[in-house]
Specification:
- This protein has 300 residues and is α/β, with parallel strands linked by helices.
- Helix content is 31%, strand content 23%.
- Helix 5 links the parallel strand 4 and strand 5.
- The protein is globular and about 45 Å long.
Amino acid sequence: MGTNGTVIPTTNTSAAKHRWKILARALVGDRSSDPDDRIFSVRRFQCFGLFQSKVVEDRSSDADWFTYTSHDFEKLNLIIRQLRAESTVKLDSLLGFNNTGNICIWPSEEVMTHHCLKDVNWFRNKSVIELGGGMTCLAGMAVAACTEASCVVLTDGNGDSVTNLDLMISENKDSFGTTTVSSRLLRWGPDEAAKDLEDRFDCVLCADCFFFDEGRSDLVGLVYSLLRPGGQAVMFAPHRGPTLQAFVDLASDKFDITVADNYDDKIWQLHQQMKLKGHGEYDENLHYPVSVLLKKTGSS
């Protein structure tokens, strides 16, 4: 759901061990019955069906190229490279940060993309950065292609993701118009520096990056440093137990915050329909993205 640039400390804590156990089981296809896993990694529910995708080209053994379009937004026509579900993920590419969104597009990223496209005029002439966007940064790509933003920077904490983003930027360059689009490796943590990005952005995008305890405070600090006074962070994530509220509590010291469950009629209706199917497929605690809007106080 969104990947995220969260730095995972190498301390030998029980929480860290548990998360690595989840990851190890996922890599070998083990479906754990441990209830604690449900906060961190559940993929039974795939998406809300807000976009249409179609395989357009097979260029490698580990990835497919898709066209992404939308019945609601005719201008959207992106070419997105995604790893195949059966692709092998190397453990050495995962060390040091949370890697959960690198394979697929999660519901929070899907919903955040839809949300941005509903208000394309707001982004005009604004500088935008997406944090922890994984292999696709779908929301950032959509903003770059459809909104006349002045610049869009796509970031993730995984080098392979950034390489994939570079490929997609090249493939979609004719769709960006006058918007400057770039990608870069960006992690958050006490030893990570992004001095050249401080106070540069009108908008930060971030999907489903709240759930690791160790990176939550660092994410708050990074978002604050990136935004200009008056800038906004558009963020979406499911509750995942107490994790979303924990992020909101931390962020409330630095930002004006608006949290909303019912922020879009179409998505709310889809949410209600999915709830009727029961917890065997859809669990709103894990799958329904809540809107979290942060505003950095001060004149713009």
